[in-house]
Amino acid sequence: MRMLVIATGLAAAMGLAACQQSHSDATEAPAPKKDLGRSQVMYQGQEPVLKIDTAVVEPGKTPDSVVLKVTGDVPGPGYSDAAFLPRIYPAPPPDGVYEVDVVATKPAGAMVAQPTQIEVAHAWPNYPAAHLKAVRFMAKGNQVMATVPAAKPAG
After folding, report:
1. Of 11, 46, 96, 103, which has the maximum CB count within 10 A?
2. Quick check: helix, strand or coil at residue 89?
3. Between residues 41 and 46, which one has the greater pLDDT?
4. DSSP character for 133?
């Protein structure tokens, strides 16, 4: 009887060992792209917009500024104080693409869950002109990149 139990246990162990996938056959998922910037702290009630439809970077009124413009959707009517929060970088991004969170303040009280269009346009004074090639606008559901216009020659 003891030999039968040992033989059954040995057969079960061998069967389970044959079912396991070897480590060399497993495929690893690619590592997610590491984000060098970190988000600024949002004020109470602010949250990222749902999605961004269009994004544009235009020259500002002064030589040391650009104007950021975005159209997108928020979760419902009543969102206000839409703004851009440039991410904080320890050093300029190697590709010259700076990320900016697009946020808005949600309304107090109950809200109808009906996506509503929102437009945001603000100047970015003293932007990092020497390094900035494009701006990636960040929302909850997507990201949209807009290139920075070439500087006009003096004269």
Report:
1. 103
2. coil
3. 46
4. S
